[in-house]
Design brief:
The chain is α/β, with parallel strands linked by helices. It contains 11 helices and 9 strands. α2 packs across α10 (about 255-265) and α10 packs across α11 (about 275-285).
Length: about 290
């Protein structure tokens, strides 16, 4: 965490926060002030909800700033320290439970906006395996590798510390780099119809896009399904009361979330996230609570 604190000083230096008082956005009266959103762009639940929050908070009269961060631990530390105001898509119940243990006393849980998120190991549909326990003894078939995402992700920790030893998969190496690199390797394997096993989660656009099959977890080493949350820094609701009140009502079903993420990731190009959210809101005008004045 000392290393994370050092990264925080570097990673948030370009934020250019404005305003008076505490927090990244500096407190503010109802309907005004600056709110800084911290998220990991390659985790597209966070990317999609960040731009959705940007759209709605801007409509309420806030100035919204984005702070892309590469590691979950750094993001939780920044939220707890007030360097960012909001983490728009967190997994605090299971996946990020260790970060909440460390930083939760300085974080406000604004709402559980989506129910039923799960972690998994996945294979393409053409692979004739349906359960994680069937991977035991088959490392050679998969090149001895499980292709993972960022080293600091909760999914990486769960795979390394619970799933691999729990299912006797020590002959597999968990290869970590980034979500983008994992997707690139997955695409190459599918194009060649090669066997590959990757760390994935749901909801995530890649599951349906690549016809991925989530392997059953009969021993439950990935943990129970959990909710995704909007988290705020300590004092968020006091500083931004109308934003907090609106966020507390902004929940999404599986179908609604899936359509949002698909619109942001697949229907529009990178750099057009704001336009994607506008299009999604036009197609789904009654999903979210109204913003006063619109």
């Amino acid at each position: 965490m000392l290393g994370a604190a050092g990264l925080m000083g570097l990673g948030l230096a370009a934020c250019g926060s404005s305003g008076d008082g505490g927090g990244a956005g500096g407190g503010g009266e109802s309907g005004g002030g600056t709110i800084t959103l911290g998220y990991i762009p390659s985790w597209t639940d966070g990317l999609s909800t960040a731009y959705l929050m940007d759209n709605r908070l801007t409509a309420m009269g806030y100035t919204v700033e984005h702070e892309p961060i590469t590691e979950a631990g750094v993001l939780y530390a920044g939220l707890a320290q007030g360097d960012v105001d909001m983490f728009p898509s967190a997994w605090p119940e299971v996946t990020h439970a260790s970060y909440m243990e460390e930083y939760g006393d300085s974080i406000e849980d604004l709402v559980a906006y989506y129910e039923g998120a799960v972690l998994n190991l996945s294979v393409p549909e053409y692979v004739d395996i349906t359960s994680i326990d069937e991977l035991a003894g088959q490392a050679d078939r998969f090149g001895g590798r499980i292709v993972g995402i960022e080293p600091g992700a909760g999914l990486t920790e769960a795979t390394q510390d619970r799933v691999i030893p729990g299912y006797g998969l020590e002959d597999f190496e968990l290869v970590t780099s980034s979500t983008t690199a994992m997707i690139t390797e997955l695409e190459s394997a599918i194009d060649a119809e090669e066997d590959i096993v990757v760390t994935l989660w749901s909801p995530f656009w890649a599951m349906p896009a690549y016809s991925m099959k989530a392997l059953e977890d009969p021993e439950g080493h990935f943990g129970e399904p959990e909710a995704l949350h909007h988290l705020g820094r300590e004092g968020f609701a006091e500083d931004f009361p109308d934003a907090a009140g609106w966020i507390a009502q902004a929940t999404l079903t599986d179908e609604q979330f899936g359509s949002l993420e698909d619109m942001v990731v697949n229907q529009f190009d990178e750099g057009e996230e704001a336009e994607a959210v506008e299009a999604w809101l036009e197609e789904n005008p009654d999903v979210l609570p109204p913003v006063e004045g619109e």
